Amino acid sequence: MNLLRRYLSDFISLIFPELCAACHASLVAGEDLICTNCLYNLPYTNFHQQPDNIVAQQFWGKLPVRAAYALYFFNKGGKVQQMMHHFKYDGQQRIGNILGEVAGRQLAENDIFKTADYIIPVPLHKKRMKERGYNQSACFAHGLAEKLNATVEVDNLIRAVATKTQTHKSRFARFENMQEVFAVAHPERLANKHILLVDDTVTTGATLEACGIELLKVPGLTLSIATMAYAI
């Protein structure tokens, strides 16, 4: 019976092959959404080895961040953009878990990131959450938690106001658009904790900055940031 199922599965794969979310090549047995070639050769930043990396520099003088990181460089039209599109708009939320595990293995080697107590995803407004069905940043957070032995908090940082798209806005306009959008529901749970705030892609950092400002109102809280990609 198992042999028959395998033959049937192989036959279906010939007619309807599963494709890599990054390069659209056919996946082979044992590959899950992203082919082995892409997992090895996507444009990794290695920012976990560079304390003063580009993402960290975006928050200098704006937000006291202990460490900041992005897993990949994001180029328009590149494989990372293709993968992120499938992740955000085609319902392939498992991509976030996979990338979280990849990032988590890197961050577990870093003395700062591996001390995170809680991982908090940038929240979606309930209306957007209903439309999409899942929070892509939360998928990433759960993958990270698997490797960092940290707890994911998905109900503490909340988006109280729905905002319009940030696309084509300047950094200042993006930051203004995010003013008074976020709130911390249970600050007592985060007091004196190291929080890893996560998002999918960092461009100007305005959304992360707005979230960080609210989180840092909690007594004794220290903040680090991790994202799946940095847009260049």
Supply the key terms:
232 residues, alpha/beta, Rossmann fold, 2 domains, five-stranded parallel beta sheet, two-stranded antiparallel sheet, 9 helices, 7 strands, globular
What pattern of helices and strands is seen along the backbone? HHHEHHEHHEEHEEHE
Strand fraction equals 15-25%
> In the CATH hierarchy, what is the architecture of the largest domain at level 2?
3-Layer(aba) Sandwich
Helical coverage, percent range:
25-40%
Count of DSSP-assigned helices = 9
Spatial extent as radius of gyration? 19 Å
- Number of folding domains? 2
How many β-strands, per DSSP? 7
Oligomer: single chain
Shape: globular
Which ranges are low-confidence, i.e. pLDDT below 50, for 5 or more consecutive residues? 11-16
Strand order of the largest sheet: 1-7-6-2-3
Structural class: alpha/beta
Annotated CATH topology of the largest domain: Rossmann fold
Largest sheet: 5 strands, parallel
Task: Indicate the CATH class of the largest domain.
Answer: Alpha Beta
Family: Belongs to the ComF/GntX family.
Organism: Mucilaginibacter pankratovii
Protein name: ComF family protein
InterPro entries: ComF/GntX_DNA_util-trans (IPR051910), PRTase-like (IPR029057), PRTase_dom (IPR000836)
In words, what does this structure look like?
This protein has a 5-stranded parallel beta sheet with strand order 1-7-6-2-3, sandwiched between helices. It is globular, with a radius of gyration of 19 Å. Helix content is about 40%, strand content about 20%. The termini are far apart. It has helices at about 1-15, 35-40, 55-60, 80-90, 95-105, 125-130, 135-150, 170-175, 205-215, and strands at about 65-75, 120, 150, 155-160, 180-185, 195-200, 220-230. About 40% of the residues are buried. The model is unreliable at about 10-15 (pLDDT under 50). It is of the alpha/beta class and about 230 residues long. This is ComF family protein. Belongs to the ComF/GntX family.
